Amino acid sequence: MDLSANGGFDVRERFAEGAQYVGGTLRGGTSGRSHPVVDPATGESVYAYELAGTADVDAAVAAAARALPGWAGATPGERSDAMHRFAAVLSGRAAEFAYAESLQCGKPLRLTTEFDVPGTVDNTAFFAGAARHLEGRAAGEYSGDHTSYVRREPVGVVGSIAPWNYPLQMAAWKVLPAIAAGNTIVLKPAELTPLTSLMFAQAATEAGIPAGVVNVVTGAGKEAGEHLVGHPDVAMTSFTGSTAVGRRVAEIATATVKRLHLELGGKAPFVVFDDADLEAAVHGAVAGALINTGQDCTAATRAYVQRPLYDAFVAGVADLFSGIRVGDPFDAKTDLGPLISHAQRDRVAGFVERARSYATIVTGGEAPASPGAFYRPTLVTGAAQDSEIVQSEIFGPVLVVLPFDSDDEGLALANDTPYGLAASAWTRDVFRAGRATREIKAGCVWVNDHIPIISEMPHGGYRASGYGKDMSAYSLEEYTQVKHVMYDNTAVARKSWHRTIFGDR
Ligand code: NAD
């Protein structure tokens, strides 16, 4: 393959020094354990690196702490200028980022080129602007004798932990609001996918963001991850990943009284009312279920279809699923790449195999003959609402469809899992749409679409999907703290309220 034709480069050469980025320098880890980056489309290792140990986390936190006074003390305009340059560097390297993201994740180049990378550039530009809009509420004389105002300040050194499904976008969602608000950060990407997080941090340095503001430690969750969460010099933990690991992270963060932001799992419902545009709903369900091979926390996973449309919806999805082209991520015709790993493929297949005893596998349910971690788009019907395949996050190209009769029933089923990250309602009736958007308990409800995200709007969960917001001005709230400053205006030594202590003396 001519690597340079599609932004390709030699990963081993580029990251020859290692997969830790500390204080603006790439270096090796010190855990004594090696980890591969595997191309999931071929099963071949494309790079191997030494995982970060606790000493690497300590070094990265120290670098972030050293960089903090300078970066927090920069003016909003200076931070904004640097972040605009950051967006320009990323944009100039778009093809390289798309290549590396496709290589380590198996994402079709079409997806990384049209979604992951431009989304990241846009996010960077958004936060470059947002850096100048940090404000506290108005000042005033609320007691009569004092003037109060609110300062908005960075939290300090942020420790962030990210998953493997959108490594570049997750790095962006963690790093950008943190640094826009004047914090410095240590990011721990998933062990399987360090490449674009490292490139992202390097691009920040290249753009003139001072060394130490953005650090990356690539280590195991139990070792580097837990050490980062528990680190006494880390003021805040921001975690995106599974609900199970999120609980563990919360335990550790609570012990050290850290601010915590959790973006956890999802099991998004896709509710189709009987007046919906069937073609739109069928295409929306297929795209919403299969994006990123279903490894998307907001993916459409449970379609509830009102009885009159149910048969036609199932037939339509089955037809489109059977035409999806599964294969080489670097082939422009490929619609669906592999899962992240063979372990994840086997996990997904396990859910489907267990479902055979209680549900119908309409299409898919098999892995094509290939050394890669591929799995065919799988449509499941006939499952009970309380069954595993309806309730658990599968994180693969599997869509379950269930019928409903009344609107009440459809909305109740949509809310009937522990999760609450995203959902969609499909209807041409404005009152039904209004009711669905009010009653579905999720951080995002789409009407007549499913998946689009934009930099200006918040992303985050309800219930077991976590708390706190990524993207948008709301995320800046997570990464700042407000301080009340109060000035005495009387200039008298004996304040009137001192009577509570001195009485009439
Ligand atoms: P995961 O929870 O297994 O791992 C996420 C990260 O946590 C990785 O970097 C991992 O190394 C680290 N980790 C693992 N154990 C740890 C521990 N004990 N302490 C500290 N860190 C630890 O998740 P995953 O399999 O990488 O990603 C898939 C999950 O992420 C899904 O559940 C998905 O829904 C979720 N996700 C959520 C969002 C969101 O915005 N809500 C976005 C993307 C992915």
Automatic annotation (TrEMBL):
Origin superkingdom: Bacteria
Lineage: Bacteria, Bacillati, Actinomycetota, Actinomycetes, Kitasatosporales
Protein name: Betaine-aldehyde dehydrogenase
InterPro entries, alphabetized: Ald_DH/histidinol_DH, Ald_DH_C, Ald_DH_CS_CYS, Ald_DH_CS_GLU, Ald_DH_N, Aldehyde_DH_dom
NCBIfam families membership: PRK13473.1
Family named by the database record: Belongs to the aldehyde dehydrogenase family.
Keyword terms of this UniProt record: Oxidoreductase
GO molecular function, one term: oxidoreductase activity, acting on the aldehyde or oxo group of donors, NAD or NADP as acceptor
Residue ranges constituting the Aldehyde dehydrogenase domain according to the UniProt record: 33-485
Organism annotation: Actinacidiphila glaucinigra
Segments crossing the lipid bilayer: none
Active site, UniProt feature: 263
PANTHER family from the UniProt entry: ALDEHYDE DEHYDROGENASE-RELATED
